[in-house]
Amino acid sequence: MAANVNEDKLFRINNRLCYFSNNGAYLAVAFHSNLLIKDAKTFDTCHSFVFADVIQCIEWSPNSEYILCANIKKAIVQVYSVHHPKWKCKLTEGSVGLQSVTWSPDSKCILTIADFNIQISIWDLEDQTVSYIQNLKTSAFDKLHFSPSSRRLAVITTEKNKDTVEIYRTDNWKISRKLICDRLRNIDRIRWSPNDELLCIWCSSPAEPKLIVYSTVWEKHVAAFSPLEITQPPETVYSFERKLKGIENVEWMPSGQFLAVIGCNEVIIILNYITWTPLLQLYLDPLIRECNYLTRVYKEFIDSGKNPNKYIVSCNERVLREIHERPICIEIGKKDSSDNFSVAKVNLFEFSVCGQYLAVKHELYPTTLWIWDIFTDYLDYLLLENPITTIKWSPVHPQLLVFSEYTTRVYEWSRKSTRILPMSKYMSVVDAHWHPTGDKVALCGYNKAMIYEITDIS
Fold first, then answer.
1. Is 2 exposed, middle or buried (0-12, 13-18, 19+ CB in 10 A)?
2. How far is CA 212 from CA 36, 156, 220, 229, 383, in A?
3. How far apart are alpha carbons 163 and 157 in whole angstroms?
C-alpha cells in the first residue's frame, strides 16, 4: 500500500475538529470561532463562517447540506448551510445547559441533551418547533440510539426507580413502544442490530448480568442470554477455558450475523444471532504462549539498521518487526494512583467494515492491540512502546490506523502488512477522520491537521 502526506494541506484546528462531509464533497475545519468549508478534492476554501464563540463541537448533517457548530460550555448551537451560506439558525438551551448535540437522521431536526440528562430537546428546523423527551436515565452510557434505517430512536428512561426503553418514531417523534424489561435488574445499555429488526438491551451488574433481545417485527422479546447460564455441550467444537463474567459491552458484526459480548474479566465471546449460543471465545491473555505459533506478533523497536529484512519498515528510527520467539509476556500498565474506584476494562473495541476482524485494547495492557480474525480464530498483536489512544478502521477496506500517546508516529495494520507511516516529526497525531471513499484521511493533532492520501491499495 502506497501513500503520502502532503504537508501543503496542513490546517490549524481546534481539538480534533476536522471532518469530511458524508457525501465526501467537503472538509469542515474549525479553528477558534471560525468554520471553514473546503473542497475535498482541491482543499480550497468554499465558505467561511464565524461562530458566536470558540467552537467546541461540529457535526455534518446526514445529507451533507448543513453543519452545526456548538459551544457546550455556553450552551450555544448554530447551524449553517453549504448551499445557502447567508442562511443560519441559532439555538440556545438556556438554564438547563448543554451536554451534547446531534442531528436527526433526516437532517430536519437537531437533538440536544441537557446537563444532568434533564431532557432531550428536539428542534424542528422546518416547523421551528421544539418537543421534549423526559426522564432520561442519568447513569446510562447510551443516551439515545438511532436504528440503522433511521426510522426509530431508542432511549433509556427511568421513573420511580424503574428502568424502561422508550422507542420513538423519527417521522413525528411520537412514542411507539415502551419496553418493560422485568427480567433485567436494571438497564445499562442498548444496541440496534444492523438490519434494524432487533434491539439488544442489557444489564451489566456482575450479580445478575443478562441480555435480552427485542424484535421490532414480532414486537416482543425473542431471546435472552446470561453469562451465568452458559453451558458447554459435549459436542461443541470449541472448548472455552474461561467463563464470561458480567456484560461490559456488546457490539454487532456489520453484517448482523454475530454479536460480540465483552465480559468484565478480559473475555470476549461471539454469539450466533439465531441460537444465541457462544461460538468463539477470546481471552486477552497477558502471555503469548508457545502453542500460539499461528499468531503474528509485531513489536516496535529502535531501528539500528543492522538487521534489515522484509518485515522491517523504517520510520523516524522506529520499526515494527515481526517476532517469532515464544513465550512473550505482554506489558501490564500502571494504574492511575488518583483513580481508586474505576475498574480496568476494554476501552477500544471495533469491527472492520467487512466484519472479519475485531480490534481490541484493554486498559490493563495499554500498549497492546489484539486484532482477532474471527473467521479463522487467529490473532495479530501490535506491541507498541507508548499507550494506544485511538484506532480507526477504513470505511472501505480492512485497513486500520493506530495512534499512540506522545509520539509523532502512526501505525498501519492490514491483512498483508504492518508498518509505521512516515509522518512529520513536528506533529503528534492523536486521531483521524476517514474520507467516505477510503482514499484519504484527515490526521488530527491537538491543534493542527493534515491530509494523508492513499494512492494504491493492495
1. exposed
2. 45, 14, 10, 13, 36
3. 6
* Residue 36 pLDDT greater than 60, yes or no: yes
pLDDT above 70 for 413: yes
Q: What is the DSSP letter of 136?
A: B
More confident residue, 8 or 186: 186
Digit-coded pLDDT (tens) for 272-331? 988 898 999 999 999 998 876 678 999 999 876 544 444 444 455 788 999 999 899 999
Cell numbers standing for residue 397:
477496506
Is residue 402 within 8 A of residue 414, CB to CB? The reply is no
Name residue 384's amino acid: L
Can you tell me which residue has the cell 418514531? Answer: 169
C-alpha cell belonging to residue 247: 456484560
Locus of grid cell 463562517: 49
Alpha-helical regions (H) of 289-425: none
pLDDT for the residue numbered 268: 96
Q: Which range, of 142-151, 301-310, 381-390, averages the lowest pLDDT? A: 301-310
pLDDT tens digits, one per residue of 198-215: 999 999 988 899 999 999
Record the cell numbers describing residue 451, joined without a space: 491530509
Looking at the predicted structure, is the pLDDT value of residue 140 above 80?
no
Which class for 230: exposed (0-12), middle (13-18), buried (19 or more C-beta within 10 A)?
A: middle
Q: If you search the block for the grid coordinates 431532557, which residue do you land on?
A: 119
Question: How far is Cα 381 from Cα 384, in angstroms, rounded to an integer?
Answer: 10
**Nearest partner of 321 among 367, 404, 381, judged by Cα:** 381
End-to-end CA distance of the chain: 6
Q: Name the residue among 404, 313, 343, 413 with its Cα closest to residue 372.
A: 413
The CA distances from residue 454 to 87, 355, 441, 443, in Å, are: 36, 22, 8, 13
- State the burial class of residue 382 (Cβ atoms within 10 Å of its Cβ: 0-12, 13-18, 19+): buried
